[in-house]
Amino acid sequence: MSSVALDERLVRDSYPVAELPLCQLRLMDDTRFPWLILIPRRSGVSEVFDLEAADQRQLWHEVGEVGRMLKALTQADKINVANLGNVVSQLHVHVVARKSDDDAWPGPVWGHGAPQPYDRNDLASRRDYLLAQLDGMKLQL
């Protein structure tokens, strides 16, 4: 699958975790919220409906599998899935684990306080843990 350049804000605010069949999976650099981002490797795409039908199905399949994994790992009360694109137009989907006692509950995580970046050791550990959980998941339709 071809490589697609990422918007500089996605690169700056998140870290790569894995290459899924359609998307690059990234971890948002904010320890307050377990927060993953899926970015389809397709050029010039800003809306879900810009994707071919097969890619749309694959995107939602990957979002669903990642959401189930994140909910199980975090024991979240709710998984928020969002595709906004008001600031970063490149198509990307946020999958955020929410708990009723988190800093932003019940409001959105966007714009709530200052992000608390991961320490590099914690980041590596978190990435390795997520990779282990992804192993064996049914990410391909």
TrEMBL record:
InterPro entries: HIT-like, HIT-like_sf, HIT_Hint. Pfam families: HIT. Residues 36-105 form the HIT domain. This is HIT family protein. It comes from Billgrantia antri. The lineage of its organism: Bacteria, Pseudomonadati, Pseudomonadota, Gammaproteobacteria, Oceanospirillales.
